Amino acid sequence: MTQQSVESRTSAQDAGPGPRLPAGRSWLDRYFHISERGSTVAREVRGGVTTFMAMAYILLLNPLILGGKDVDGQVLGQSGLITATALAAAATTLLMGFVGKVPLALAAGLSVSGVLASQVAPAMTWPQAMGMCVVYGLVICLLVVTGLRELIMNAIPLALKHGITIGIGLFITLIGLFKAGFVHKGTATPLSLGPAGELAGWPVLVFAVTLLLIFMLQARNIPGAILIGILVGTLAAVVVNAVADIDPKAWSSGPPELSGSAVSSPDFSLFGNVDLGGWGDVGAMTVGMIVFTLVLAGFFDAMATIIGVGTEAELADDRGRMPGLSKALFIDGAGGAIGGVAGGSGQTVFVESATGVGEGARTGLASVVTGLFFAACLFFTPLTAIVPAEVASAALVVIGAMMMQNARHVDWSDRSVAVPVFLTVVLMPFTYTITTGVAAGVIAYSAIKLAQGRPREVGVFMWVLTLVFLVYFALNPIETWLGVR
Question: Least enclosed by CB within 10 Å: which of 178, 281, 388, 432?
Fold first, then answer.
C-alpha cells in the first residue's frame, strides 16, 4: 500500500464517525480540518501559544551554543544569531502549519547545534558550517522521498538510537556546565569544580538557583517551566548585578542590564551567509562523517517526535500512521536547509509540541500561531539579549536531564546492547565529539554480535557503517601509509 493511500485512508477514518461537522464552516475550519479533528479555533490558538511558551528558550540557548569561534577565529554576532534563530523557527513552523497541517513546531535542534559548534566549526568557517546544514537537510529530504528512511530506521538497533539521544544529552549538559562556569578546566585534574576546586562569584550562584528553580517547577508539572525559570533567573541576575559590586567581565555574555529600548529592527547579517563549496581542505572523509553525524542528530529524534506527538494528538493509528506524515518528515528535513540559509542551524521538530497538544491542539492552525509568535520575536532582540549565559546554561542542563529518560528503554542486562550504548553515551562528552560516540557504539555492537556467533543480526547496512567508522578511526595511519600526510 502506498503512503498516499495510507494517508487518505487514515484521514478518512479521522473524518468518519467523528464529530458532526457544523453547517457553514469558515474557510479556516475547512482548510485546517478543525471540526473534523474535534477541535475549535480557541483550542488551536491556546495550544499554539502554549507550545511557543514551552520552546521559546531556544532563542536564548541556540546563540549560546553557536557563540564560539570557527577555524578562522571568527565569531557569529549575538543579535544576528537571535534573529536567525527566530526567523528559521518562524519559517519552518509556519510551513508545517500551512502545508503539513499538524500541530508540530520546529526550531534549531540543540543536538545539531552541538555538532556544529564542537565538531564542524573547529574544522570549517561558519558559512561552510551552515552549508553543511543545507546539505544534510537535502539528504534527509532525499531519504524521505525515496523511502530510505525506513531502511535506515530499521537498520540501526533501537537501543543504539536511545544511546545516541542519551549521549547527546550528556554532551549538552557538559556544554551548559562549562558555559556557566560551574565546571572549569582544572590544573591538577582535567576538570574541576569552579576555577580552583570551588564555586566562586555571583554569576555561578545565579546559574545554580535558576537550575534548581526549573527542576522544582518541572516537579510540580508547571507548564513552560524552562521559560519561567529563565525569566526569573534573568530578573535575579539584573537585581544582583545592580546591587552587588560585580566585575562586568564576570558575566560570560556581559552584564545583564535593563537599558535602552526593548524593540529593534531584526539583524539579518547572517542570512544567506552560506558557503556550499571550498571543503577541499577538510577532506572528503571528514565531510562525509559530518554529514552523517548531522543526519543522525536531526533525523531519528524527529521521526520519533512526529509519531509520538501525532499519537498524543490522536492523529496516528496503532501502527504509527498519521495524515500528512510524509509532508511532516519532508518539512522537517527541509528545516535543515532553511536553518542553514538563515544562519541559525538546522531546524527540527520539538517534543515541546506535545504541550500544545495537551492544551487541545489538533491541527496546523496551532503551528501557525506558534510560528507567528516566533516571527514577532524578530523585533525583540535587545530584550532577549539581556539574558546572561549563566541563566541560559541552566536550561541546557535541564534539557540534558530530560534526554536521559531514554535510559529506561535500554536492557542493561544484555551485554550486546549495554556495552555499545555505554560507549556511545560516555565517549560523546568525554571526547567532545558526537561522531566518536556513534562510531564506537556501531563498531562495538557489530563486534559483540560477531563474537556471539550472530553476525546476521547486525544487518548489511550496519556492517557497511562499521567499515566506514573503522576507516574513520584509522584515518590518520591510513593517510600516513598512503603518503597523504
Answer: 281
Question: What one-character DSSP code corresponds to residue 69?
Answer: B
3-class state of residue 29 by DSSP = helix
Residues 313, 103: contact at Cβ < 8 Å? yes
CB contact burial 45-61 (16+ within 10 A = b; e otherwise): bbbbbbbbbbbbbbbbb
Question: What DSSP assignment string belongs to 106-137?
Answer: EEE-HHHHHHIIIIITTTS-HHHHHHHHHHHH
Q: Are strands 183-185 and 191-193 parallel, antiparallel or unpaired?
A: antiparallel
Residue 457 has, within 13 A of its CA and on its CB side, a CA count of 13
Give residue 253's pLDDT: 65
Nearest to 120 by CA among 258, 379, 4, 294: 294
Question: What is the enclosing helix (H) or strand (E) of 396?
Answer: helix 389-403
* Residues 376 and 422 reside in one and the same domain: no
Q: Cα separation of 175 and 389, whole Å?
A: 11
Angle at 299 between CA 97 and CA 135, to 5 degrees: 90
Q: Looking at the structure, do residues 391 and 439 belong to the same domain, yes or no?
A: no
The x, y and z cell numbers of residue 147, run together, are: 523511502
Cα distance between residue 214 and residue 391, in whole Å:
11
Residues paired with 191 in a beta bridge: 185
Place of cell 542570512: 271
Number of domains the chain contains: 2
pTM: 0.71
CA 277 and chain centroid, separation: 25
Q: Which domain holds residue 431?
A: 411-485
Decide: 434 and 289 in contact? Cβ < 8 Å: no
